[in-house]
């Protein structure tokens, strides 16, 4: 009997020890299972409010300028004889549409008008002409052309159009304040100078 009692006591103690170790292990695992992922940066997608008149004018005028480029590019997608020119036009439209949305969001957040105070729109460009032609005049000329003649004239006018955007962006880098607008200005310079080089190559091959 004593031996049996001893064995029972030993069994009880063993079970108690096991139970205790299980309960002790759970809290130790809790920090690992409840570790949270890093929080998303609060400023992501937000508009930097710091801006001056140059930032406002840059955004307002570049929106109109981009709208003109998209109008020309969409026409080229329909009419260009060369697949290379159509692909270029598709790329211009795809890139500049989101930039228009971005700049519009800045102006709204800044409490500024989304169009210049002079009332410039995409049919006039308010001095942002191409070889002495307004947006309206350039579109009228392009609509009257076809085949290789269309491709050549589209490239010539779009090169001039891009050069205007580069000049506007360079002015923004000198006069602007808003870091997001300055970053976009540099991006426009880089992207459009590269496209100018591509278009000059296409012209040489026509």
UniProtKB/TrEMBL annotation:
<protein>
    <submittedName>
        <fullName>Lipoprotein</fullName>
    </submittedName>
</protein>
<keyword id="KW-0732">Signal</keyword>
<feature type="compositionally biased region" description="Low complexity">
    <location>
        <begin position="30"/>
        <end position="43"/>
    </location>
</feature>
<dbReference type="InterPro" id="IPR005183">
    <property type="entry name" value="DUF305_CopM-like"/>
</dbReference>
<keyword id="KW-0449">Lipoprotein</keyword>
<dbReference type="Pfam" id="PF03713">
    <property type="entry name" value="DUF305"/>
</dbReference>
<dbReference type="InterPro" id="IPR012347">
    <property type="entry name" value="Ferritin-like"/>
</dbReference>
<feature type="region of interest" description="Disordered">
    <location>
        <begin position="21"/>
        <end position="47"/>
    </location>
</feature>
<feature type="signal peptide">
    <location>
        <begin position="1"/>
        <end position="19"/>
    </location>
</feature>
<feature type="domain" description="DUF305">
    <location>
        <begin position="55"/>
        <end position="203"/>
    </location>
</feature>
